[in-house]
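Weekly modeling sync, notes
Attendees: S.R. (lead), two postdocs, one rotation student

Agenda item 3: backlog of single-chain predictions. S.R. asked that every request posted to the team notebook include the full sequence so nobody has to chase files. The rotation student volunteered to paste the first one in as an example of the format we agreed on. Action items at the bottom.

Example entry:
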Amino acid sequence: MTLYLEFEKPIAELESRIIDLQKTADESPVDLDSDMLKLRVKADKLISDTYKKLTPWQKTQVARHPERPHFKHFMEIMFDEFIPLAGDRAFADDQAIIGGFARIGDRRLVVIGHEKGDDTESRIKHNFGMGKPEGYRKAIRLMELADKFNLPVLTLVDTSGAFPGVQAEERGQAEAIARSTQKCLELGVPMVSCIVGEGGSGGAVALASGNIVLMMEHSVYSVISPEGCASILWRTADKAADAAQAMKVTAQDLLKLGVIDKIVGEPIGGAHRNKSLAIANVGKEIFEALDSLSALSASELKKSRAEKYLTLGSL
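Predicted structure, as returned to the notebook:
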């Protein structure tokens, strides 16, 4: 059963009518196929029209949709094989950040990403995708392995931000995030990053400082969550929609600003309506991006990365 967002109420009502009509058709000898077809066409147009004019706050809601594809779905659909590697070799294994070796055909690479979980038990296990210091140190370890074995790096970013708990601060959260960002910039192999849901604060930047940064059509990327920004500026999270508008969190805004390099299109109605197609679209763009970087030397990759981020915000 589809989980509808607040702004999707008209869509929900129309699709509910289609379901009711289908039940009636199953129980009655009357042919209702033409009526159902008309409603389906109307519903598809409503979905398309709605998603063409989403506000930044509505896009934030879509980016957070619980049925949106997560890291594990990308690994299951995009690759022939994925071998996860655990632990930071210092403290523990953080389940919010998953990484390891992946293979598709003869292509091999290191993949790292946030995993939010898709039910109560898995969300708790993965800490809702909020990485701890050991998670970012694990990412550093994996990037070092990628450098050692000359494997390209892919990162899939989907986090509201790094874990803000006292324990994380005690174990050096800021230092771990900074060193993970630094390692991204120092890599001598191609690195492609894709924002697939939320890209929140330094917790996202620490895995998103690649040569090429992609962003799914209805994902968001910002220095702070809209609610957090609203709480600081207006002393109330009720102004989150205004904050999202002001912060330019959408892929469309960030492409204009030069923060990202390309937008990956999503199925009509968002990635949660067709996970397989959404992941296929992401995979196509990722491998094209990796191919475009394959001819560059280690020094050229580092130089292009440095130039990319040093020129951000320049007039």
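Discussion: group reviewed the output briefly. The longest strand covers residues 191-200.
Action items: rotation student to repeat for the remaining queue; S.R. to check formatting next week.
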